[in-house]
């Protein structure tokens, strides 16, 4: 039996209660989207155009910029559609596909940040072997592995959405499709869809964060063994941009988790705003961080 994705569409939501201010909110969102495109697009162009930037560290940065651009392109049409022309309808198939791409790219971004930590670890622990370890082919394999992990791991929870029946309200909480929103509308046993994301988060975000932390402990141990204070500062300075991006990403993840877990009495608009911060703040900040710290 083929899934039925042509039934009644879902309805997207913007900022309930703030409809009168949508004009001003849309200006803010449009400015952020333009900044994200300009910042990440410029990074990609510079890395492609400048032969001095064609090395592992900047290849990983290009992957990060590409991921940020893609997640922004995925959310922008429906968000601006709701804010500009109040276009709230989204077909089930488009909603499920949007949720799949958004969640997959979040895991991809976590994997890229982990890969960048590995890059910094090799650069500081084994500087003389850096280029022989992180060859172009190895960087490509790491990038492919990160992509496959992100997109394959989201297939199990997204696929059942196509077969669920939806007899509850068809109104979503955001201006884009999210797995947690859609599954709550299903009139079916969603036990797997509730438990799988918890396990997935533990095996991706939480595990990645632990490995990144461990790698920086080893990096710090190596740097403290350098005799020259100037050389220690120089070595640590090469990690500042990456550490800043890691903090921006995981602080927003933790903030969103805390709001959902412990902010049940907070206004609904706070939950929604935090979700937008999670999806827009890292893509907005990452180019700025690397522009400040990199010549």
UniProtKB/TrEMBL annotation:
Q: Do you know which InterPro entries this protein is assigned to?
A: GPCR_Rhodpsn, GPCR_Rhodpsn_7TM, Olfact_rcpt, OR51/52/56-like
Query: Does the keyword section mention Metal-binding?
Result: no
Q: Does the keyword Disulfide bond apply?
A: no
User: What residues does the G-protein coupled receptors family 1 profile domain cover?
Assistant: 39-290
Q: Into which family does the record put it?
A: Belongs to the G-protein coupled receptor 1 family.
* Pfam families, A to Z: 7tm_4
Per the UniProt entry, what are the Gene Ontology biological process annotations, in alphabetical order?
A: cellular response to lipid
Record key words, sorted: Cell membrane, G-protein coupled receptor, Membrane, Olfaction, Receptor, Sensory transduction, Transducer, Transmembrane, Transmembrane helix
Membrane topology, record value: Multi-pass membrane protein
Organism source for this protein? Marmota marmota marmota
- What does the UniProt entry say about where the protein is found? Cell membrane; Membrane
A cellular-component GO term for this protein: plasma membrane
List GO molecular-function terms, semicolon-separated. G protein-coupled receptor activity; olfactory receptor activity
Question: What's the protein here called?
Answer: Olfactory receptor
According to the record, the segments passing through the membrane are 20-46, 58-85, 97-118, 139-163, 195-219, 240-263, 269-290
């Amino acid at each position: 039996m083929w899934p039925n994705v042509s039934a009644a569409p879902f309805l997207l939501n913007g900022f309930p209660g703030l409809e009168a201010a949508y004009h001003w909110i849309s200006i803010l969102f449009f400015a952020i989207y333009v900044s994200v495109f300009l910042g990440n697009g410029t990074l990609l162009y510079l890395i492609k155009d400048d032969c001095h930037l064609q090395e592992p560290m900047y290849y990983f940065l290009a992957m990060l910029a590409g991921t940020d651009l893609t997640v922004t392109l995925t959310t922008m049409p429906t968000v601006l559609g709701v804010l500009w022309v109040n276009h709230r309808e989204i077909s089930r198939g488009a909603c499920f596909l949007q949720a799949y791409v958004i969640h997959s790219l979040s895991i991809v971004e976590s994997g890229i940040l982990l890969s960048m930590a590995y890059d910094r670890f090799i650069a500081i622990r084994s500087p003389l072997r850096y280029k022989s370890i992180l060859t172009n082919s190895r960087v490509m394999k790491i990038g492919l592995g990160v992509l496959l992990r992100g997109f394959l791991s989201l297939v199990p929870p997204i696929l059942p959405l196509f077969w669920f029946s939806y007899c509850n309200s068809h109104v979503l909480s955001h201006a884009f499709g999210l797995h947690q929103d859609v599954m709550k509308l299903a009139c079916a046993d969603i036990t797997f869809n509730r438990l799988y994301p918890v396990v997935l988060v533990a095996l991706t975000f939480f595990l990645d964060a632990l490995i990144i932390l461990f790698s920086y402990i080893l990096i710090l141990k190596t740097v403290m063994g350098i005799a020259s204070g100037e050389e220690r500062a120089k070595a640590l300075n090469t990690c500042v941009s990456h550490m800043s991006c890691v903090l921006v990403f995981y602080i927003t993840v933790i903030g969103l988790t805390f709001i959902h877990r412990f902010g049940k009495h907070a206004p609904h608009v706070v939950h929604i705003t935090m979700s937008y911060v999670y999806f827009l703040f890292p893509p907005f900040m990452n180019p700025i961080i690397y522009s400040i710290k990199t010549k």
